[in-house]
Amino acid sequence: MRSHEQSLYMAGFVIIHLPCYLQSFTWDKSKNNLFGYIADIVIAGLNEAQWLDFGRLKNQMTAPQPTVFTNSHLYDQDFYLWIETTAKQLKEGRFSEVDLENLIEEIKCLGRSEKQGLASNLVVLLMHLLKYKYQPEKRSNSWKGTIREHRRRLTITFKDSPSLKPYFQEVLPECYQDARKQASDETGLSLDTFPLESPFTADECLDEEFLPD
């Protein structure tokens, strides 16, 4: 005598693999088909209670299943949820489930963002130092406030990431050229008014007490 579970399993097998024979739980023997005959035997072996279980099983098997995204798909579908999921996987040591490719790319992007933020703050700082030096008649507390604010931002950057200090020295000449052009645009002074090389050292840029004469 087959067990209840075996009967359900066989019925499920028939539903999945022989849907052409499933006609509202009846089977047409006139088709003279071996598989249809087997299906009749399987269903005939179910009592009334098993028929109810069988019906529920059919509904579960034929119901549309929700779409499940892998972690790499989640990266494109819901970035914040991807971050939360990846953090949880790392915390729980489930490293094989981590979306390494996108995680590595995000770490690289984070490093690039830190560098871009540093350079942006340095350009603004240098531009205002130039304006303060070459337009003394227009000096204002607003300029001094901007200088202080961007020094503060740079200080925080170096506190969080001391390894960026060499990059600061490296990018200073390039940032100065951008600052020189922007200072010319904002002041209306000729670009030649400002020296080709920065008149401010790296230490002066970060010195809270320094203001050009």
Summarize the model shown.
With 213 residues, the chain is mostly helical. It has helices at residues 4-17, 34-44, 48-62, 71-77, 79-91, 100-134, 141-160, 165-187, 202-206.
Written overview of the protein:
With 213 residues, the protein is an all-alpha fold. The chain is 67% helix and 0% strand. Helix 1 packs antiparallel against helix 2, helix 1 (4-17) crosses helix 3 (48-62) and helix 4 (71-77) packs antiparallel against helix 5.
Strand and helix map with partners:
Layout: H1 4-17, H2 34-44, H3 48-62, H4 71-77, H5 79-91, H6 100-134, H7 141-160, H8 165-187, H9 202-206
Report how far the terminal alpha carbons are from each other: 102 Å
Shape: elongated
Largest sheet: none
Looking at the chains present, what oligomeric state does this protein adopt?
Answer: single chain
The computed structural class is mainly alpha
- Measured as a percent range, the helix fraction is 55-70%
Q: Look at the structure and give the mean pLDDT.
A: 80
List the uncertain runs: 6-39
Number of helices: 9
From N to C, what is the helix and strand string? HHHHHHHHH
SS strand fraction: under 5%
- Rg calc: 36 Å
- Strand segment tally: 0
